[in-house]
């Protein structure tokens, strides 16, 4: 099976690009970055309707046959780790807990890759019943989305009255030993004044809170560069209540800048996706729920690995296609003031 380099490669330079892809080990782009962090979306479906991600009615349900099967997900992980140098994976959605086979999928990945870090990003709905089984299956750690601990605000943001279920899921993750438990909070205008309250709540429970700048990835396309909450605003509000000391990043590819809170040991992370671009050190590659590789959240350039899988392609074919679209990855996204909404929303891409 032949897999072409892709539509962005002209005839004159095609051979040069093919040579570069063949000669360079791992999953690299033309700017010298190497992808080590694989994020695989398992579904577009979600149990919440957060206004910065989902429309009120949710995204269209994807027919089961269009989703990657558990076996296909495991095979792509095998290719990523064995052929392309992937060093960690994260299972995302939509909401990955809507997959009834999630525990079996985690266990299959773990069976193939004993030491591979396997993380999960979830909204926590239903986690209270499954955290122990996921840990037993081989899940390494977990990120849980929580923008506020105020019940009324939570219901407004998510369009669902489920805060108690999320907190129960957080408690279950801690009890199951899925450490560290990280909390992802999107920085919103309506919750900004209560950011210190959320930080205190997390510190008291030994949770690692990270505030994330909202991105133009909402399905309703209402994000506005003039009104989103910046990292600087979050730090200013937190600084009114806490002494914050910058401590850098966990590693060069990590998106969160860390700040020690009141001398430690607790920290808070700030992910300045829009105001302080970290594209130059990006080490991520994403696969959507239907099997399309998307090297950048803000680019609609994709390649269909599901088609390669289901047409009989071997591991070399999958690796070649994956490398090809990665090579085309842009140097970075446009400035916030001019950045356009991509064709897919975050729920359809995978976090």
Please tell me about this protein's structure.
The chain has one domain: TIM Barrel (Alpha-Beta Barrel), CATH 3.20.20.70. The two termini are 31 Å apart. The chain is 32% helix and 16% strand. Strands 7-8-9-6-5-4-3-2-1-10-11-12 form a 12-stranded mixed beta sheet. With 351 residues, the protein is of the alpha/beta class. The protein contains 11 helices and 12 strands.
The gist of it:
The chain has a 12-stranded mixed β-sheet. It is built from 11 helices and 12 strands. The protein starts with 10 loop residues before the first helix and ends with a helix.
Can you name the CATH architecture?
Answer: Alpha-Beta Barrel
- Terminal residue distance: 31 Å
| CATH fold label | TIM Barrel
Name the structural class: alpha/beta
Q: What percentage of amino acids are in beta strands?
A: 15-25%
Keywords:
single chain; 351 residues; alpha/beta; TIM Barrel; twelve-stranded mixed beta sheet; 11 helices
Topology (SSEs and partners):
Layout: H1 11-23, E1 37-41, H2 70-84, E2 88-92, H3 102-112, E3 118-122, H4 127-137, E4 141-145, H5 151-158, H6 163-175, E5 181-187, H7 195-204, E6 208-213, H8 231-239, E7 244-248, E8 257-261, E9 267-271, E10 284-287, E11 292-294, E12 303-304, H9 305-310, H10 315-327, H11 346-349
Parallel strand pairs: 1-2, 1-10, 2-3, 3-4, 4-5, 5-6, 6-9
Antiparallel strand pairs: 7-8, 8-9, 10-11, 11-12
Helix pairs in contact: 2-3, 2-10, 3-4, 4-6
């Amino acid at each position: 099976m032949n897999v072409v380099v892709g539509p962005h490669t002209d005839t004159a330079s095609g051979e040069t690009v093919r040579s570069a892809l063949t000669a360079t080990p791992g999953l690299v782009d033309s700017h010298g970055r190497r992808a080590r962090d694989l994020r695989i979306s398992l579904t577009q479906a979600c149990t919440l309707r957060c206004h910065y991600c989902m429309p009120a009615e949710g995204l269209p349900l994807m027919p089961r046959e269009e989703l990657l099967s558990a076996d296909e997900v495991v095979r792509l992980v095998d290719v990523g780790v064995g052929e392309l140098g992937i060093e960690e994976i994260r299972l995302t959605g939509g909401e990955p807990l809507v997959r009834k086979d999630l525990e079996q999928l985690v266990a299959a990945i773990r069976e193939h890759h004993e030491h591979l870090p396997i993380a999960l990003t979830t909204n926590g709905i239903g986690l209270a019943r499954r955290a122990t089984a996921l840990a037993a299956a081989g899940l390494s750690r977990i990120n849980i989305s929580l923008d506020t601990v105020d019940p009324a605000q939570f219901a407004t943001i998510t369009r669902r009255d489920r805060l108690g279920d999320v907190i129960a899921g957080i408690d279950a993750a801690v009890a199951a030993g899925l450490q560290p438990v990280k909390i992802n909070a999107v920085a919103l205008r309506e919750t900004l004044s209560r950011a210190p309250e959320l930080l205190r709540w997390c510190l008291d429970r030994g949770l690692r809170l990270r505030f994330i700048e909202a991105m133009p990835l909402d399905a309703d396309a209402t994000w506005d560069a003039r009104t989103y909450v910046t990292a600087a605003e979050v730090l200013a509000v937190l600084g009114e209540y806490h002494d914050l000391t910058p401590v850098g990043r966990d590693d060069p590819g990590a998106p969160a800048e860390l700040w020690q809170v009141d001398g430690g040991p607790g920290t808070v992370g700030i992910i300045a996706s829009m105001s302080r671009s970290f594209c130059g050190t990006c080490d991520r590659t994403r696969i959507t729920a239907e099997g399309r590789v998307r090297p950048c959240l803000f680019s609609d350039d994709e390649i269909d690995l599901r088609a390669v899988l289901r047409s009989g392609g071997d591991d070399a074919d999958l690796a070649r296609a994956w490398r090809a679209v990665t090579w085309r990855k842009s140097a970075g996204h446009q400035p916030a003031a001019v950045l356009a909404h991509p064709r897919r929303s975050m729920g359809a891409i995978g976090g």
